[in-house]
Amino acid sequence: MRFDTKIGIVVREDLAVWQKLNVTAFLASAIAGEAEEVIGQPYADKSGNTYLAMFRQPVLIYSADAEGLIRTHTRALSRGLPTAVYIEEMFKTGHDDDNRAAVQAVLADELPLVGLAVYGPRNAIDKTLKGLPLHP
Hints:
Elements: E1 5-12, H1 17-34, E2 43-44, E3 50-51, E4 59-64, H2 66-78, E5 83-87, H3 96-104, E6 113-121, H4 122-128
Parallel strand pairs: 1-4
Antiparallel strand pairs: 1-6, 2-3, 5-6
Protein name: DUF2000 domain-containing protein
């Protein structure tokens, strides 16, 4: 099935594996929290157990160096796309309030990005993520 929207997550390539997974999980939660239309219906197995709903469409994970993240961030903002960011300082904080304060303390073009997520029309997301490889 081809969707007219796309979810893309970009993670800085030089992070430790645990950091990549952590960043990806946090960024995916931002998309789920903001774009209700991307969530499908709850699941149930034949035994009657129910499970939480998930994204109704694929989430593509990309890899980038620091410059690629900056370029992608700039493109996303210039297109007005819903964007989530994860910065280096967030590895040192303990909760959401501190995370927001860390981001708010830095100008957009100086954010020490380690990851970002974008959601929107397929064509706009493709242009925003152009040139980035899928994460290996």
